[in-house]
Structures are given as C-alpha cells and as structure tokens.
Amino acid sequence: MNENITPHPQRLIQPQADSPHILIIGAGVIGLVTAWALLDKGYKVTVLSKGWANVGQNHGDRLTSQIAGALWEFPPAVCGSHIDAVSLEYSKHWCMTAYWAWKQIADDAGLSREAGVRMTQSNFFFPQRLSDENEKCNKLLNKMMEIAGSGVEGFRHAGAKLAEERGVNPKYEGGIVDGYELSVPVIDTDLAMHWLTNLVLSKGATMTTRTIEKDLLLVEQDLRNEFHADAIVNATGLHGGALSGDDSCSPLRGALLRVVNDGTTFPKVNAALSISADVSEDNEIIFIVPRTDNILLIGGIAQDNQWDLDLTLDTPVVQRMRERANEFLPGLKNAKLDPAYPLAQGLRPARSKNVRVERELRRSEGAESSSRIVHCYGHGGSGWSLSFGCAADAIEGKEPEPMNYRI
Questions:
Q1: Which end of the chain has a smaller Cβ tally under 10 Å, C or N?
Q2: What are phi and psi of 350, to 5 degrees?
Q3: Helix or strand (DSSP H, E) at 197
Q4: Which residues fall in the annotated binding site?
Q5: Residue 255 · residue 381 · CB < 8 Å
Q6: Which residues contact 230 (CB under 8 A, 6 or more apart)?
Q7: Under a CB-based contact definition with an 8 Å cutoff, are residues 22 and 44 in contact?
Q8: Fold assignment, 21-398
C-alpha cells in the first residue's frame, strides 16, 4: 500500500532477535490494524483477547467490530456527535488516514474480494437547506465544506434533487431539501475481520485467548514479564475504561436489520443513504447501507448506557426503526428479512471524553519508570473509520520519543 504497510503476508521489515515485543489486548478492528502496522515495522506482536471473529450460527458471539455498519464516515458520525473539540480535530485526521488505506484495498480487485472492502456512494440528506442562517445549518455546512476539501473522491453537493435520484421520499420529515454524496469505503465486516486475523497471523503474530479484568496498571509488570513484552496496547473497546481506571466509558447500544437486496421485492439499493441523529427532528437515525451484493443493512438506533443485548424484531424501537426506513425509502416496505441473520445488535464503545489514544499517564506505586501502556479505545461507532489513523498514533505513543510515523 505504501512504504509503511503492506496487505500481503510478507512483512515489510523482518524482526530481529532483539526487536521489541508488543502485547496488544483486544482483537477487534483497532487491535488487529495496530498489530498489522507494528508487524510491518519489524516488531514482534502478541494479540491477547477473550474472543475472536466468528461467523458461526450463533450470531451473539460476533465481536462488536463484526456487527458495525462499517461505512466510512467523516466525523461526527451518523450515530452521534463529538463533545470534545480537540478529539474531533484528531478524528478528522485519523479518518482520512483510514480512508486512503481502505480505498487502496478496495481499488485492488483481488484484495477487495478477499477483504470485503469496496467503494460506494454515500448520500446524506437534510430537511433544511445547509445555507440557512442558523447554528445547526452552519455546523452542517462547515462539515460539508471540510469533506469537499478533504480530498475524498466523488463529492457532489446535489441539493434537493439527490432525493429524487436515489428514490427517497422527498416529503420525509417535512421535506428533503438538501443533500450531498461522496465515494467512501464500505466493509463486509465478517469477511474483513477474518482477513485481518489471518493477515496478522501470516505476518507472525501470536494469538492468546484470555480475559483480563483488572486495571492494566496493576498487572502491567506481570503481563510484561509473562509475555516478555516491551509495551502494552489497550485496544479493548468497551472494556477499555475498566482496564484503565476510566469511568467515562459506556455502551451505546445499536441494532441493524438485514434484508435481502437482490432486486426481487424492491429496486436494488446500490448506495448508502443516511440522515444523522443531529439532523433529524427527533434525533432518530436513517442508516441504509449495502453490506454485500445481496444484503442491505437498515438502521439505526443509538441508546446510551444500555448494556443488555435483548432486542428482538418485535421490540418497539426496532419496529420504529423499520417504519422510519419504509417511510424514507418507500420500496423497503416489501423487503424481506435475511432468514439466516435478520437482526444484528451490539454495544458501541462510547466515551464521554471521546476517543482516547495516549500513553498511560499514571505511575504504579513504587515504579521506577513511566508506564509502557498505550490506550486506544472509545471509538464509539467509528472504529472502522478511524482504524488506521488511530493505529499510527498509538504506535507513536508506544515509543519513548515521538516518531514521524504515519501509515
């Protein structure tokens, strides 16, 4: 892909006997992409996780990274907004690093098939003109202008006619009066997670199954001694706060309906269609994304601090999600659920202080040196969108001195 990272099994730099060994805790997209980047820099890597990517019949065993919508987004994401302005600026940098990495995979026909990554048009609709003079529209217009100037491909500010072009109900929420589109990566997460897992294994990573419950600072030295690790990366998603004494983490429960998108019962949808929570009058999301050639995702919901994965097709919030989608894109009322896997649900790893990518600042009692833990968690619904950018900065944080490293 470039001089820092390759999607092929061979490492860019082979490890030496004295190469540093990094212990990564967590095997979601953040942990695996970080492992990949480290392996190509010549590090030895062990990935420790309580679970691994699964595509069996028990859909409840899937990792959060597999359940994600995995449509690349420029922040703030559809499911919510950033609170911290500094974190938002970092996220803009991280997402563009990831954009070009995923796009390079999508642009290679062989890799695209193997990794489940392709480019699609992502469309955003608005019930108010972005040029209107009010605070909300000013923010939305500024975001659109940043996207237009970011270098992403396929950007077009189409206005109200975008709804007609995409078959969207022009009267939804009082009328769709503005819209824009851009070309973005969309990822088949089951396929991609297995590809990432196999890739880091082929590059020489060791994988160990274990659950860690304690604050990493309390067990840092024991873990480093056991694994002969020079540093530890905390990439445990929702569990990241518990492993770092951070009480600002909480789940943001989400769900997606999966329907058959083969053109039989409704016109096939080939582009992503969205209305974000901060645009909708009632803060409800429209999130319609082609996942594979014949599966369409319909979402979504964002329920703060809900830990239970007990949603069903009959749960009112799920039924309302389907009703919104049917009203927004009328053809969907005829859509048939995927009989094998109709409803996906998971807990986004939210954090009130937004994404955390930094070295551990605390010091163990009696410790003679600073901690060698780097935290990389709290990505909310944006793990895939921020992955390569956060991995690059996490690697910088692992070094004693800052590196001029970017994937």
A1: N
A2: -85, 160
A3: helix 189-202
A4: 64-65, 236, 348, 381
A5: no
A6: 20, 21, 22, 224, 372
A7: yes
A8: Rossmann fold (3.40.50)
Question: Which residue type, as a one-letter code, is found at position 293?
Answer: D
Could you give the CA distance from residue 319 to residue 203 in angstroms, rounded to a whole number? 45
- CA dist 231 and 44 (Å) reads 11
pLDDT tens digit sequence for 94-123: 999 999 999 999 999 999 999 999 999 999
Q: Which residue has the tokens 């062989």?
A: 110
Residues counted in the chain: 407
Q: Euclidean distance between the first and final Cα of the chain, in Å?
A: 9
What gap in Å lies between CA 103 and CA 98, rounded to an integer?
8
**Residues comprising the binding site for FAD?**
64-65, 236
User: Is the previous residue joined to 380 through a cis bond, with omega within 30 degrees of 0?
Assistant: no
pTM beyond 0.70, yes or no: yes
Binding residues for D-dopa: 348, 381
Whole-angstrom distance, CA of residue 357 vs CA of residue 93: 13
Domains in the chain: boundaries: 21-398
